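WARN no homologs supplied; continuing
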Amino acid sequence: MSKKYIWVLLAVLLCAGILWGYRYFTAVSYLSMLPSHPKVLAFVDWQRLSDENNMKEDDWQGLLPEGVDLMDTGIDWSEKSYAFISADEHVGLLVPVRDYNDLRAMFEGAAAKGICSGIEEYRGCSWTVYDGAWMIGFNSRALLVMGPGLGTDMDVLRREMMLCFKQDKDKSGMASPLYADLKGKDASLRMASELGVLPVVLGGEFLEDFSEQVVLRDGRICADVCFSSHGVAIETEFVSDNPELDKYFDRLTRIGGHLEGDFTGNVPSDALAWACINVDGSVLLDELRKNPVVRTLLLGLNMNVDADLIIKSIKGDVAVTVNAGAFQENTDVLLTARLADSEFLREADYWKESAAVRNGYLSFKDYGNNRFGVNVDGVQIYFGVQGKTLYVTPEMRLTEHVDGGNGRTLSTWNDRIVKSRLFLWMNLKKLLHQPETGAILRSSGAGEIGDDKLELFDAAVLHTADARRFTIELYTHEERNVLKDLLD
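OK structure emitted
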């Protein structure tokens, strides 16, 4: 090879090295602006998300103000954008900048329309306030947004953001456990959060009573959002540096195994919801007794029926079906459970004797053939055993749906059901047209998604193969570009 070609090759390598170095150090510098000790951290890989979902530039325009072109924003869409909740519980956004002049021109145009305040220069960064509540700072490397704030809060926000612009990466969010969690898996859309930040889930305190020395809020949760032609899947995992939490999850796993799918054929086509869990009754009873509230409840139940013996007899799937009339009557619910044995039926005479001394507060009726009715202070419950299945329901007519059905309401999910330890299915097409659903959605925050967007989906499911991981899916039978439809 002649010297001429050697020098050309060295020049090409030098240019490639300079370009790589620029890209590397630019990436590091913008990531080092993540606030330290974030409580929630998430990223979007726009290029990967676009490739996975066949999205073009025009498909993203709905995310921007009217009249702003995606490629004229000055933002580097080839790099990841980050959202966060800071240690001071401010919501924020960090994105890399491709062209400072384009970015500044965009905000100058917005200021001229009264969308944001005029741009100010302060300590090497440009600043503006959007909608009177969101502080925006940017330079040639990054755009940082934090808020909301009012009045003097805006000065506090800017001081906090200035620290982000000047800090080393070792003191930034890059040094946090949440950032390490995000780096643990390639994804187009991923989130990591401290559990204590998330809304309190109904029953959360109840579960924590099982954990003795472990507080669930000490853990973290990671979630990947995946889009497909049939919906959206959110795959989540609990993570923690506390070995006691590992023992806690192991204990939850011992409560039961994978579902056997015994009751999937019994779900009516117009049912609103169905949930199933696999249970070893003896193990479950031991765990229930560790909870002081449940322990007291069991003592009260055992004065009337041998609740302990009934729970111990369960071994297999336990399912709850919520039928179409549940919102109107609050009684259209059926619980079924697979039994290892039905020895507790021998206690029926004792149940009658216990009811007889309750002075009308509790009444007990034996309908024969292992079928019973209990009325507790005006609340009617029917229960009994058919074959190896225990049923409990407020409606006598629902005892016809206890076992042996061959319905196909859940046929789409059969493979997932038998691979799960817990499975919850909700009929969105039915639920969204229930008068009471709107109030429930508003109280849960899901209403912010919009009914028109939820109408895209036929069902919502939650399933888990082990105690640490669970998946939430919004499903549509119709093939479609779900991400594009959600953005329209």
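DSSP finds 17 helices and 20 strands in the chain.
OK
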